[in-house]
């Protein structure tokens, strides 16, 4: 089993739709969780951290389910500019900050 | 606000040639990393450093060497390039505290022919 697993997609959704991605992780002791966004041929950029109680940033909501070992990202009112690959990132141990990256879920928002 | 700067952005090497990729950060981050990204494989850690003068192996270190003589710089060397090292290389840095994400450089596209 991979340490971090994501559905590669692509998820094709119309503008204005709500879309959700899940990501599962194998190490129950994992400490930190993030969602990154990567545009084609660009570097990954931090979208948001994922906190135990769940957190929201505008149209984006991230949640953590430690019991089932997954994190999720919900995007409301999708924009064309949201088209990108979304990477799930997990820090499997404390103190080392060697994050494990998922292979990403590709999102295409269609006009 | 430069953040993390990588040079060069593109390079074509012949098999057996050597080169050094430079990563520089101006955020006073303790940790620095080198990743490679290949289609379908995601980001894989090559080497990392937890401070000036220290380096450690990541997931795929073979064929690469690194040095961190100054806190702001992290160099990745390929002594004898192979076609399997054709990839996009990303440098990243972070502070040494929980829930602190990585800042990435813009990447180096390397082709070995």
Structural commentary:
The complex is a heterodimer of chains A (111) and B (113). By secondary structure, chain A is mainly β. Chain A is built from no helices and 11 strands. Chain A has strands spanning 4-6, 11-14, 19-25, 32-38, 44-49, 55-57, 60-65, 70-75, 84-91, 100-101, 105-110. Chain A is globular and about 45 Å long. In chain A, 35% of the residues are buried. Chain B is globular and about 40 Å long. Chain B starts with a strand and ends with a strand. Classes of the chains: A mainly beta (111), B mainly beta (113). Chain A binds chain B through residues 31-32, 34, 36, 42-46, 49, 51, 87, 89, 91, 94, 96-99, 101-104, and chain B through 31, 33, 35, 40-43, 45, 48, 50, 58, 90, 94, 96, 98-107.
Tag the structure with descriptive keywords.
heterodimer, A: 111 residues, mainly beta, 52% strand, B: mainly beta, seven-stranded mixed sheet, 11 strands, 0% helix
Draw up the topology in text.
The complex is a heterodimer of chains A (111) and B (113).
Chain A: E1 4-6, E2 11-14, E3 19-25, E4 32-38, E5 44-49, E6 55-57, E7 60-65, E8 70-75, E9 84-91, E10 100-101, E11 105-110
Parallel strand pairs in A: 2-11
Antiparallel strand pairs in A: 1-3, 3-8, 4-5, 4-9, 6-7, 7-8, 9-10, 9-11
Chain B: E1 4-7, E2 10-13, E3 19-25, E4 31-38, E5 42-49, E6 56-57, E7 64-67, E8 73-78, E9 87-94, E10 103-104, E11 108-112
Parallel strand pairs in B: 2-11
Antiparallel strand pairs in B: 1-3, 3-8, 4-5, 4-9, 5-6, 7-8, 9-10, 9-11
What is the number of beta strands of chain B?
A: 11
Mean pLDDT, all residues of chain B:
94
Question: How would you describe the oligomerization state of the chains in this entry?
Answer: heterodimer
Order of helices and strands of chain A: EEEEEEEEEEE
Instruction: Please give the radius of gyration of chain A in angstroms.
Output: 13 Å
Count interface residues per chain for the largest interface. A-B, 23 and 24 residues
Helix content of chain B: under 10%
Residue-averaged pLDDT of chain A, rounded? 93
Could you give the order of the helices and strands of chain B? EEEEEEEEEEE
User: What is the structural class of chain A?
Assistant: mainly beta
Tell me the overall shape of chain A: globular
How far apart are the termini of chain B? 36 Å
Low-confidence stretches of chain B: none
Structural class of chain B: mainly beta
